[in-house]
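I'll show a sample.
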Amino acid sequence: MTALTLSTSSAATVRADAVVVGVAKGAKGVVVAPGAEAVDKAFGGKLAAVLETLGASGAEGEVTKLPAADGLKAPVVLAVGLGEAPGKDDGYDNEALRRAAGSAARALTGSKKAGFALPVEDAEAAAAVSEGALLGAYSFTAYRSNGNGQNAKGTKKNDAKSAPLAEVALLGTKPRDKDFKAAAERSQALAAEINRARDLINMPPNDLDPKAFAAEAQAAAKEFGLKVEVLDEKALKKGGYGGLLGVGQGAETPPRLVRIAHTHAKATKTLALVGKGITYDSGGISLKPAGHNETMKCDMSGAAAVFAAVVAAARLGLEVNVTGWLALAENMPSGSATRPGDVLTMYSGKTVEVLNTDAEGRLVLADALTRASEETPDAIVDVATLTGAMVLALGNRTFGIMANDDAFRTSVHEIAEEVGEQSWPMPMPSELRKGMDSPVADIANMGERMGGGLVAGLFLKEFVGEGITWAHLDIAGPAFHEGAPWGYTPKGGTGSAVRTLVRLAERTAAGDLG
């Protein structure tokens, strides 16, 4: 992973392959952002004019490279757009800094070191730049050949030109200041875990089945002192986990339910996080049409986010108990697969008529939600790439939030926005519940087509223990990015929801959620 250092060096004196400065769109053209004063001075106070000559406008994410002027130690200056310049008494938005740092880091692929001279007037801004740079430098190279006909998986021999930026030096900071040091350490831990989630999401399904995912959790638990328990197919059958077994019974690799937990001796609150972990989703007997299968390795993004968040809580030593439940299964069509019309008896004892085997995520989550409820946590949050309907409603960059408590839903939404994850609170209309009435079972796994994302949330609510505060994050849109990279968002797995879950855990530890 890219290294991060705090440096008191100025943009003029840092020895690096490039120095990164920020520019913005002002009322009369390009404006040089704070932090770039030394670079501007080296250009005779005409850095903005030079950049405008090269076509720069200061637009968000815009990257312009130019040779360094005399007096600068770095040979290249990289100017990155921050968007609209703030008012005289306002600072730059943290998300703008985060995205700009990510764009710069991506543009410096193949470089050994870059000095980032973006506005970092306080530790919070430094954290945003650090996160953006570390996340923007991410690259998934495990399956690329190393140039000699051999697969690069498991080796360190990658093409230097395509290697991620090796070191980020955050300039103008205070290395000995406790707030800056804490911000840097948190950013490193958080980025490492988001990138862990990204790696898992990007891993091909022939290498990441439920058994392999469980092994990843066991390895991390050993490394970071977490408690882990894995229920295999025998334990699931003995326990009556009909949802997990029903979804996974058509695959050669059987399902798993993983419990991974961070505990703290001073903790007074417990959060339970539940993740959908369909390591490949063909749709089962209700087979997905052509064009919809190619990215279905990402259907375990919720479980990846939960896993990463629990490890991050441990790495940060948060004074809160965080328990992650990974509901892992592969949804495949075969002679043994669940059929539309079958009735499953869930772990809760409720029966579910399966009308569509491609509505499988709610089935594995239902078992995990019931099991998590038995431990009576203070709150449960589930995360899932659950419905295409949510993508239609909110697009590819925003996840939906539903909850059985309006105040909790509002808190989760505010936290997501605070950490830079686009989200939106969604309702749970009671009239949609009737559409899931079944003539043969307690409930069907499908309801009305319109409002399908809300219907899925109502289904999950049925399996949350009485009196337990619960929220559901449908990350179907932002979990996997198929377009060109932007900001700190790469092509492929994004690690959506990890930042929200970690901040929620931090807020809970601090007693800010009541």
Q: What stands out?
A: The mean pLDDT is 95. Residues 283 and 289 are 9 Å apart (CA to CA). The first strand starts at residue 3 and ends at 6. The chain is about 30% helix and 20% strand.
